[in-house]
Known about the structure:
The complex is a heterodimer. Chain A is mainly beta. In chain A, 0% of the residues lie in helices and 53% in strands. In chain A, strands 2, 5, 6, 10, 11 and 12 form a six-stranded mixed sheet that branches. Chain A has a four-stranded antiparallel sheet with strand order 3-9-8-7, with no helix packed on it. Chain A is globular, with a radius of gyration of 13 Å. Chain A starts with a strand and ends with a strand. Chain B is mostly beta strands. Helices cover 0% and strands 52% of the residues of chain B. Chain B is built from no helices and eleven strands. In chain B, a hairpin with a 5-residue loop joins strand 7 (64-68) and strand 8. The N and C termini of chain B lie far apart (37 Å). In chain B, 41% of the residues are buried. The mean pLDDT of chain B is 91. The A-B interface holds A 32, 34, 36, 41-46, 49, 51-52, 90, 92-105 and B 4, 31, 33, 35, 42-43, 45, 48, 50, 55-56, 90, 92, 97-101, 104-110.
Amino acid sequence: AQSVTQPDIHITVSEGASLELRCNYSYGATPYLFWYVQSPGQGLQLLLKYFSGDTLVQGIKGFEAEFKRSQSSFNLRKPSVHWSDAAEYFCAVGDGNNDMRFGAGTRLTVKP
Amino acid sequence: KAGVTQTPRYLIKTRGQQVTLSCSPISGHRSVSWYQQTPGQGLQFLFEYFSETQRNKGNFPGRFSGRQFSNSRSEMNVSTLELGDSALYLCASSLGLAGGPTDTQYFGPGTRLTVL
């Protein structure tokens, strides 16, 4: 079965700085990859997803992620972080057959 | 289009009781998945229902059960509640099976269950 690792439990960045959240997956075939964001007390909102094609995926709120098969990674990036981006971010991998696995999450704090 | 709704939003129960949580998916979605989220264990998959059939089940005891109705609405039941069942229970709906090439899961706001 597939698995997901988010190596960073907590990241702090200054407002306006760039952001990269790491995600590594383990899966034998081409995975279906997702990034979700969860604000306090809320459910998860999809930021972006990768199924096939262009390995650089654009999402909502100015986020993007790059699928790197050689590194088994799907890191999330944003060039300039806003205070409203403070939240918890989850990477997830699907096997295309109703099995979804989520990472443990990375909590993002934004300093003014 | 209305999003995924979950009721109730908050619930307080005592050990040994049972509880039923409800999830209404986005109109037209046929798959409903349930997740348990706790600070210690993160987001853990409970089960997925598609067209009224359980298609996948996570590693949870039999006290956790669910069902899906013909209108795709789903309920989750936990019997003989334990303190460790305190968690945020999230429901997600998708057009087809979760994690698939055509599908994205849309999450509800969750039900916060506290077991005393």
